[in-house]
Fold this protein.
Amino acid sequence: MRIGVPKEIKNREYRVGATPDCVRAYVKAGHTVLVQRGAGAGSGYDDDAYWGAGAVFIETAEELYGAADMIVKVKEPLPSEYPLLRPGQLLYAYLHLAAVPELARVLMERRVSAVAYETIQLPDRSLPCLVPMSAIAGRLSIQQGAKYLERAFGDGAVLLGGVPGVPRGKVAVIGGGTVGTHAARMAVGLGADVTILDVSQKRLYELDDLFAGRAQTLVASDANVERVLASSDLIVGAVLVPGAAAPRMIRREHLKSMLPGALIVDVAVDQGGCAETTRPTSHDEPVYMIDGILHYAVPNMPAAVARTSTLALTSTTLPYGLVLASAGLESAMALRPELKLGLNVHDGAVVHPVVAAALQLASAA
């Protein structure tokens, strides 16, 4: 199979879908890997490294998409890439179609088979290709939150860890999954006053054991969410329903009761955001203000630490990519059943039931 690795074009997206080691593995398995020149530069991989691994260089995205049977990338195709997609092509990337219905329509119209990293799901309901980026995004949410609470960016002017004799900053983490757990871990490490909210009582017991009393846990009821929002300096939106739009836990009216200069870091922005006031931003312009509350909503947060993120991502996506390339889509799903839920669009239809429901389409599954 001819596997194409394009250069990412999303704002400051420095990750790459395949490292030179990945290329070497694909070539060893008998495949041809087409790499767009400069694709790995943002992650610290120069063209010589890809050449040494056996890659064939392609100058333009148009040439690459035109020649490749399978596209391996990080983020979803952007509108300028839509015309490059071909019928029968296999797209393997993060897609988050619930938040970009126009891409879903393009994939259906162009009859592309699209496997989304974020919905590949093991029997225990874990998401192996999403976990590494969720962990990084969770940690970055506190790192970025601490920065944007500085007076230069808004009215927060809060040091999360405080100092002796001064109250610590208050951090609310809404969602106790991978993002939320890693966000809380970083916030606790800084010395912040941390509260984690989740809908699952079982998960709250697990988090209570994990943090051994260093973080408060609360059921994510409307009353608790409203109460915690009103007293927090930093709120991390870490809610995830695989394949679906994120539930709106933070409503516009909540902002009026929040602390002046408080900051919302909505990691759920990839799935539409868990705040009604969330809109996607970029690494160039990451924040905006609504009703005195600062919002940070960068969909590709892990790109800020591209080398770490690329290595973490490809360590989980490569094994599935090899099966897809070597066995073909249908046989790959038989060999690795978790790929069945990874398949979002096929043969002109949305085939993932949750994604279809989010897009208000009938599922062809």
